[in-house]
Specification:
2 domains, 7-stranded mixed sheet, 14 helices, binds pyridoxal-5'-phosphate, alpha/beta
Length: about 400
C-alpha cells in the first residue's frame, strides 16, 4: 500500500502561494507560521501528480475538450460519498466556487435584490453579493446552530429575498447540518421563493466518522429550488486548478443558466482542472482518508495544547471541534477579555487578539470578524499542515 508522508515540510515560499506571499501585507511580518487561507501544506496525491507530470512532459499544450468521463465521474463520486443519485445533465463545470457564486448571483438576482447568509460565514458569501450591488441580510447562527425560526421571520419581514447562500459543511466552525435542519431550511426557502445556493466544497472532508448530507438530496423541494456547488479542490489540495462543478436538478434553473455559462465559455475546464478532478475522484480516496486521519490527530494535538493554556483558572482558547474539514474555529473570548481587561468585548478589542497571535505566538490566523461581527473574539486556524507547524508557543498573558 502507498505510504503517505503528511509530516513533510514543503518550502512554499517563492512559489506564488498567496498563503506565503501575502504574509507581510496582511500581518506586517513574514517570519510567522501561516495557518490562515484554506489550502493544505500537503503534497497532493501521487496519482494526480503522475497524470499531470505526464501531460506536462508531452510539451504540447493545445486546446482541450471536456473529457467524456468527467460528469459520470462526478456523479459516481456523489453517489459513493453522499448517497445522492445525480444525473450527468444536472452537472456543469464552473471555474471555481467563489466565481460560481458570482455567476449565480449575477444570473439569478438583480442589483438591489436581497441575499441572505448565516453568519459568521466564509466572507465571499457577503462580499460577492455586495460587490455586485446586492443587499446582504444576516441570519446569525446561534452557538453553531441554524436559527430557522429567525430565518423564517426575516424572510417574511424582508421578502422578497431572492437567494440564500448556504455553507454546508459550514466554514468557519466545521459544522455539518442535520437532515432535519436541511429539510426545514428547504421548506422555508421554498415557501418564501428564496433560491438556495449550497456551497459544499468541504463536504468530502468529514471527520470522526461523520457523514455529510447534500442539501438537494433531502427532499424534492430542496432539489427543485437549489444549486449545489462542489469541488475536489479542498479535499485533494488542488485549489490552484480552479476545478469545480455545479449540480442543478431542476431543468428550469439548469437550462438557462447552463446555456449562459456555455455562451460565455465559462463551463470549459482547463486540462489541469479536468484531469485533476477525474484522477482525484477515481484514485485519490486512500490519500484523502489518510489525510483526514492525520488532520484528526492535529486537532487532538491542538485541543491538548489549548487545554493547557490557562489564566485565572480558565482556559483562554477553546477550539470548536470541526465535524468536517481542517479549519478550526477558536473561541478566544477569554483570552481577549484578559488582553482587553474587560468582560464586555467590543469590535475595537479584536486587534489585540490579532496582535497576540502575530507578534507573540507568531502565527498568521484568519481574524474571526472577517466572517461577520459574530466572529468577535474568534480566530480561524488551518490545521491542514504537518504537525510540527502547530508547535507554536502560547506566551503567558497577565
Ligand atoms: C466555503 C468555501 N467556499 C469556497 C471556497 C473557495 O473556493 P474556490 O477556490 O473554488 O473559489 C472556500 C475556500 O476556503 C470555502 O471555504
Amino acid at each position: 500500500m502507498e505510504e503517505f508522508n503528511f509530516d513533510e515540510i514543503i518550502d512554499r515560499r517563492n512559489t506564488y502561494s498567496v498563503k506565503y506571499d501575502a504574509l507581510k501585507t496582511l500581518f506586517g511580518r513574514d517570519d510567522i507560521t501561516p495557518l490562515w487561507v484554506a489550502d493544505m501544506e500537503f503534497r497532493s496525491p501521487k496519482c494526480i501528480r503522475d497524470v499531470l507530470e505526464k501531460y506536462v512532459q508531452s510539451g504540447v499544450y493545445g486546446y482541450n475538450s471536456e473529457p467524456a468521463q468527467m460528469k459520470p465521474t462526478i456523479a459516481g463520486w456523489m453517489l459513493q460519498e453522499h448517497e445522492w443519485k445525480v444525473e450527468s445533465d444536472w452537472i456543469s463545470f464552473i471555474p471555481g466556487i467563489v466565481r460560481g457564486i458570482g455567476l449565480a448571483v449575477n444570473f439569478f438576482t438583480k442589483p438591489g435584490d436581497k441575499v441572505v447568509v448565516q453568519s459568521p460565514v466564509y466572507h465571499p458569501f457577503t462580499n460577492v453579493p455586495l460587490g455586485n450591488g446586492r443587499k446582504v441580510l444576516r441570519n446569525p447562527l446561534k452557538e453553531g446552530k441554524m436559527d430557522l425560526d429567525s430565518l423564517d421571520s426575516l424572510l417574511s419581514a424582508e421578502g422578497p429575498v431572492k437567494m440564500m447562500i448556504l455553507c454546508s459543511p459550514h466554514n468557519p466552525g466545521g459544522y455539518l447540518w442535520s437532515r432535519e435542519d436541511l429539510t426545514q431550511l428547504a421548506e422555508i426557502c421554498h415557501r418564501h421563493g428564496t433560491l438556495v445556493i449550497s456551497d459544499e466544497i468541504h463536504a468530502d472532508l468529514n471527520l470522526w466518522g461523520n457523514r455529510n448530507i447534500s442539501f438537494a438530496s433531502v427532499s424534492d423541494i430542496a432539489a427543485e429550488n437549489s444549486i449545489t456547488f462542489g469541488a475536489p479542490s479542498k479535499t485533494f489540495n488542488i485549489p490552484g486548478f480552479a476545478s469545480s462543478f455545479s449540480i442543478i436538478p431542476n431543468p428550469e434553473l439548469a437550462k438557462p443558466f447552463y446555456a449562459w455559462l456555455s455562451a460565455n465559455e465559462l463551463n470549459c475546464p482547463s486540462i489541469f482542472a479536468s484531469m485533476g478532478m477525474i484522477t482525484a475522484y477515481t484514485e485519490g480516496k486512500p490519500w484523502r482518508d489518510a489525510a483526514l486521519r492525520y488532520i484528526e490527530g492535529n486537532i487532538i494535538y491542538l485541543e491538548e495544547k489549548f487545554a493547557a493554556f490557562r489564566a485565572g483558572g480558565e482556559q483562554l482558547i477553546n477550539p470548536v471541534r470541526p465535524q468536517s474539514s481542517y479549519l478550526v474555529w477558536l473561541d478566544c473570548r477569554n483570552l481577549l477579555r484578559h488582553l482587553a481587561g474587560r468582560n464586555e468585548l467590543k469590535l475595537e478589542d479584536q486587534p489585540l487578539l490579532v496582535d497576540y497571535f502575530v507578534n507573540k505566538a507568531r502565527i498568521g490566523l484568519n481574524d474571526g470578524t472577517m466572517f461577520g461581527p459574530e466572529g468577535l473574539g474568534f480566530m480561524r486556524l488551518n490545521a491542514g499542515c504537518p504537525r510540527s507547524m502547530l508547535g507554536f508557543d502560547l506566551p503567558e498573558v497577565r
